[in-house]
Structures are given as structure tokens and as C-alpha cells.
Design brief:
four-stranded antiparallel sheet; 42% helix; 10 helices; 279 residues; alpha+beta
Length: 279
């Protein structure tokens, strides 16, 4: 007897205020006509779904994004034997307004997405990074920076009346000040607003300038400096749990995950002088 596949879905509040996450693998469920008061940014990952959006039929193929404006009436249902697997971000208007200020958005009205389904393969890795950053212990600077990157690209390229980014100018002094601040506060959960205020630049302009001049965004630089201090602490023989707490990680497992992602070995292996051989 063939086992009938069952639906699975999860909806939860992210650590970043104003954001909800939704993850689903559906085989039977049908979403009745409804709307959200938030922006919906979704990635269709496998199978296929279909929907009615503003009176038109839409097909959600793997790799496509769904971009739904607040108040847009729509439905949704599975449209393939393989089911429909997707992930959504629901972003409150209050958070979008905050993001627009950080982007120095030049218009008074909120961005309005023209097409509810679009192909943007270059944004898939960024969406995954943001979703994972919101779903696991991560610093505020990383979460905010990734959200700014994603929404900047979507609003500029897929909303009505696209806008261009403000041209970058040489900001060597400000970027050096930002680096110094990140080095001094590597273990603190600082926000992009706090960092931007230190150097008198707007948040997203700072991220872009920092990336251009240093080669990585501010949150990567802070993490690099944090791990540098961790390696020094590991050489002292301190307990891993103590090092994790003192160096600004949520717990020892958070330290283990980040350290191994970066160096290929766990903190414990590094502390003992072990190495891992790869076939």
C-alpha cells in the first residue's frame, strides 16, 4: 500500500522584530482567498504551486520568487504530484518603512511589486542566507545587513518605477572609523544603525562603501575579528563554554558551528592541536 504524503508547515516569529518566517512542504492544502497586511517575499524550492493573484492565474515553478504586496488578494494550492515546497518571509510595514529610511529611498510611497512571480536566480543564495540568519542564532548586524541587501535589490529591480543607488564616494576616513569600532566591539550585538551613527553615514550606504573598500560587509568583518580573538583564547586552554560567553557567542554550540564553518575544524580540535583529514 502506497503511503499518502502528508503536509508539513511551520510559521514562527523571527528574532528580528517585524518579521515572520514560514516553511512548508504541501501535497493537499489549499489556501482560500486571503491577503496579508505585510509584504510577502517567498522562494519556491521544489514541486509546483499555482495561485490566483489580482484575478490572474499564476504558476510557481522551482526557483521562482513570489512578491506579494500588502493587501493583494490571492489564493494558493499545490499543482504537481511532487507537492509544493517553499519558504516565505512576511515583513511588517513598520519594518519596511525602517528599511526604506536606511536605503535612503527617494519616494514617499511604499514600493509596489508589479509581478507576483518572478525569476531572480542571482538572489537565491542571498534569500537562503537571510532565512538561515533569521532562523538560527546570529548577530543583529548580520540579520539587518542581509535584509537590506535583499530588499534593496527587490525594490530597485522589481517594484514600479525602479530607482538607482546613490553613487559611492571615497569614504576612507569613515570606513577606517567603522573598522576600529567593529574591532573594539567585536563581542557585542551591535546594530547597523549604531554603526552608521558612529561614522555619520546612512546604514546601507555604509554597507556598500565598506564592502567596496574592505572587500566584505561590516558583519563579516566583525565576525572575522571575533574569531581572531577566539583563536587566541583557545591557546590559553580556557573551557570552551567560557570562551563562547566571553567572545560574544550565544552558547558553545553557536561557537562550534561558526568556527567549523570558517576553519574546517571545531574549537575543541583546534585547542587540542588536532586536524581533520579529508579524503
Amino acid at each position: 500500500m502506497v503511503k499518502t504524503p502528508t503536509d508539513s508547515a511551520r510559521l514562527w516569529q523571527a528574532d528580528l522584530p517585524g518579521l515572520e518566517l514560514f516553511q512548508a512542504q504541501l501535497f493537499h492544502h489549499r489556501f482560500n482567498k486571503h491577503f496579508h497586511e505585510s509584504y510577502t517575499i517567498g522562494l519556491n524550492e521544489a514541486g509546483r504551486g499555482c495561485s490566483q493573484h489580482r484575478g490572474e492565474n499564476q504558476v510557481h515553478y522551482p526557483g521562482s520568487f513570489k512578491l506579494i504586496n500588502p493587501g493583494d488578494m490571492h489564493t494558493g494550492q499545490v499543482a504537481s504530484a511532487e507537492g509544493w515546497t517553499f519558504r516565505n518571509l512576511y515583513i511588517d510595514l513598520s519594518l519596511v518603512e525602517q528599511v526604506l529610511a536606511q536605503l535612503e529611498w527617494p519616494r514617499a510611497e511604499l514600493p509596489y511589486f508589479v509581478e507576483p512571480v518572478t525569476w531572480a536566480p542571482d538572489l537565491t543564495p542571498l534569500f537562503h542566507q537571510l532565512f538561515d540568519a533569521l532562523n538560527t542564532p546570529n548577530g543583529l548586524l548580520r540579520q539587518q545587513s542581509l535584509l537590506l541587501d535583499l530588499l534593496s535589490h527587490l525594490f530597485r529591480h522589481y517594484a514600479e518605477r525602479p530607482v538607482a543607488l546613490k553613487p559611492l564616494k571615497p569614504e576612507s576616513k569613515a570606513i577606517q572609523q567603522a573598522r576600529t569600532y567593529l574591532e573594539a566591539h567585536y563581542a557585542q550585538n551591535i546594530s547597523i544603525e549604531t554603526l552608521a551613527q558612529q561614522v555619520n553615514l546612512s546604514p546601507y550606504y555604509l554597507i556598500r562603501s565598506f564592502r567596496q573598500q574592505v572587500g566584505c560587509p561590516p558583519h563579516h568583518y566583525q565576525r572575522h575579528w571575533q574569531l581572531k580573538q577566539v583563536k587566541q583564547a583557545l591557546r590559553t586552554g580556557e573551557p570552551l563554554a567560557v570562551i563562547a560567553a566571553e567572545q560574544g557567542f550565544y552558547d558553545q554550540s553557536h561557537l562550534n558551528r561558526v568556527f567549523k564553518q570558517t576553519f574546517g575544524v571545531t574549537p575543541g580540535q583546534y585547542q587540542k592541536g588536532n586536524s581533520v583529514q579529508y579524503a
